[in-house]
Every structure is written in structure tokens, then in C-alpha cells.
Amino acid sequence: MSEEKKRFIQEFVPGKQLTLSHLIANPDPDMFQKLGIQEAGALGIMTCTPSETVIIAGDLATKAANVRLGFLDRFTGSLVIVGSVSEVEMAMIEINRFLSEKLGYTPSQITKS
After folding, report:
1. Where are the beta strands (DSSP E) in 1-113?
2. Which residue from 5, 4, 14 is spatially nearest to 76, judged by alpha carbons?
3. Which pTM value belongs to this model?
4. What is the chain's pLDDT, residue by residue, as a tens digit (113 residues)?
């Protein structure tokens, strides 16, 4: 007797979400050098799905607080925000709030280290 083989088909359907929101307070100066960005008090790291959302997030960050964009990649949805701890946190809160309330995204809890 031959056993019937079953096939599974998986489909990736991206949601609208912030998948990571992490604030690094007082990172080691070597980290800035490795990233190729100017040293500051904090780094905010975020990833967005769909990836083009990172353009909106970068705009929101610079309008919400006195921060700089250390890195923004519209193909991976990665965003690095640079500034003081309080300013980076303020920018990350605003990004999560706006995307959640205005665009229906699933927000991400802001974690810290």
C-alpha cells in the first residue's frame, strides 16, 4: 500500500506592524563607530512591516523630537534613530502612536537596554 503524501502551501501575507522598537541608552562608543554614525546618548532601533513604512516613521521621528536618522532602509524596514535618551524615546512613542491610531498598525512595546 502506498501512503498518500500531503502538500502544504504557505503564503506570506505581511501585516501592518512595528515588529521591533528598542532603545539603547548610552551605547558603547565603539558601536557608533561600527555603525558609521555620529555618537549620541541613545540609539532607537525599529523595524516596520511593510518595509516602506520606515519612510513615514523616519519623517515622524524627526518631526516629533530633536533626533537624527542614523539609518533608514526602505527595503528591510529598518530605522535607527540617534539622539538623547529622552528625545529618542519621545520619537519612538510618537511613531508607535501615529502608526497605530492613524494607519491601523499593530504597535510594538518599546523595550530598553
Report:
1. 17-25, 42-49, 68-73, 78-83, 111-112
2. 14
3. 0.85
4. 567 777 765 444 568 999 999 999 999 999 999 999 999 999 999 999 999 999 999 999 999 999 999 999 998 999 999 999 999 999 999 999 999 999 999 999 999 99
| CA–centroid distance for 19 within its chain | 7
How far from the centroid of its chain's Cα atoms is residue 46's Cα? 1
Taking a C-beta distance cutoff of 8 angstroms, is the pair 64, 90 a contact? yes
What is the distance between the alpha carbons of residues 12 and 49, in angstroms, rounded to a whole number? 12
Number of helices and strands in the chain (H, E): 3, 5
b/e per residue, 28-55, with b = 16+ CB within 10 A? eeeebeeeebeebebbbbbbbbeeebbe
